[in-house]
Amino acid sequence: MQDIWTTIAEYFTADRAMSYAQATLLLVVGYFVARIVRSTVGRILAHAAKHQTLIFRRFAFYITFGIFIASALVAVGFDVRVLLGTAGILTVAIGFAAQTSASNFISGLFLLGENPFSIGDVIRVGTTSGEVLAIDLMSVKIRTFDNLFVRVPNEQLIKTEITNLTRFPIRRVDMQLSIAYKDDMRNAISVLKDVAEANELCLTEPEPLFIFKAFGDSGLEFQYSVWATRENFLALKNSIQIEIKDAFDEAGIEIPFPHTSLYAGTVTDAFPIRIIDTGSRGVVEP
Fold first, then answer.
1. Do 46 and 53 contact (CB within 8 A), yes or no?
2. Cα–Cα dist 177/184, whole Å
3. What are phi and psi of 244, to 5 degrees?
4. Which CATH number is associated with domain 10-97?
5. How far, CA to CA in Å, does 92 sit from each of 96, 154, 173, 189, 258?
6. What is the mean pLDDT of residues 195-200?
7. Which H or E run contains 191?
8. Domain boundary assignment for the chain
């Protein structure tokens, strides 16, 4: 037991104790300096995108604190050149072992520079739609509309089409409609305009859009589009279609369903059908 205490006493000389005290002081000071640098970067980038500010704040903290860690290691006698050499070897080894992670990291840098969406935006990636919760250098976290958490790797985002549903302040509601051939198209357009004007959620600028699509199998097909602010998009999409149905019913405009008419040559009358009662069963005779 005496030998152990003797060894410890010989190891912790006055110079070595001073070195460890200096290293500890560097770590403590470095932590607080790194936090100050992180806050300063946040104030400088206050007008930048939220996720860009978050990532730059992290970089500033870890780089600053890493410099103080390296200084603390030098203070206790470590050779920085050996550490750098070891770090280089580890970097190569990790690079071969984690190529997917490296690809996600590089893709994250591209997303950071391109800035196709921000935290709080609603995006659609493939079949997944939801609100962006976080944007990191490895992945993007999304909360779907049915409250599921989805993690999308950055590499997939770079290779996939991304639709930002809330990028612009207004959105267009497109409705695919049709009316019967017997109805007046001009009257239908007038009814639709009245419905759009009566709906408070529908914007007057840009104006509603009417596009004739085709002479369909069952009726005249067209698209009617109205604009709303992105906050009122779903409310307008639900309300205006109910109002159009009520207005068409009131105006006597028929919304056709798929049906088939049979004609014999140039005769447009329906085929005559006569039912003959034979007692136990009926016979249909053309």
1. yes
2. 14
3. -65, -45
4. 1.10.287
5. 6, 22, 52, 67, 65
6. 93
7. helix 185-198
8. 10-97, 114-164, 168-286
Quick one: CATH architecture of 168-286?
Answer: 2-Layer Sandwich (3.30)
Instruction: Give residue 284's pLDDT.
Output: 47
Please identify which residue in the block is written with the tokens 């999308």.
Answer: 152
- Around 243, how many Cα atoms within 13 Å sit in the side-chain half-sphere? 19
For 89, the token pair is 């070897």
Tokens found for residue 269: 């009358």
Please compute, for residue 57, the number of CA atoms within 13 A of its CA located in the half-sphere on the CB side: 18
pLDDT tens digit string along 105-144?
788 878 877 888 888 899 999 889 999 998 887 889 999 9
Reported confidence tier of residue 89, pLDDT bands at 50, 70, 90: low
Q: How far apart are CA 172 and CA 215, in angstroms?
A: 24
CA distance 270 to 90: 85
Q: Which pLDDT band holds residue 25 (cuts at 50, 70, 90)?
A: confident
Q: Which stretches of the chain are assigned E, i.e. beta strand?
A: 122-125, 128-135, 139-144, 149-153, 162-164, 170-179, 209-215, 220-229, 274-277, 282-285
pLDDT reading at 283 higher than 60? no
Position of tokens 């409310």?
A: 235
Q: What is the pLDDT of residues 215-256, one digit of tens each?
A: 988 899 999 999 999 999 999 999 999 999 999 999 999 998
Distance in angstroms (rounded) separating the CA atoms of residues 244 and 194 = 10
Q: Is the peptide bond before 206 cis (omega within 30 degrees of 0)?
A: yes
Domain 114-164, CATH: 2.30.30.60
